[in-house]
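#lab-general

N.A. 3:47 PM
ok so I finally got the sequence cleaned up, no stray characters, all 95 residues accounted for. can someone with queue access submit it? mine expired

B.Y. 3:52 PM
send it over

N.A. 3:53 PM
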Amino acid sequence: MKEAEYARDRYQIFHRVFSVVAFAAIIIHAAVTDDYGRDGRRTIFHLLPLACIWFPDALGHGSSNPSTPRLLRWGGWILMTVIVLLPWILSCVVR
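B.Y. 4:20 PM
back already:
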């Protein structure tokens, strides 16, 4: 592995493992609380941030900006956090 590839992929394993753990926790919580109902359509909303975290290089391939994969990865984390926290925040506001 070249030094540049190593520098780019240094935290990739951490992001992938932690995102799968977070995704599994979201799905398990939804299954236990029956938030998803029978069809599980909300799972699709969680797959987009997961794809941004796992494949930022492939998604940002067409861009000429070298920081695009990093922005995509962190954007995926922010999107996953918003998707998880938004229903909780809204339920607190409505009460």
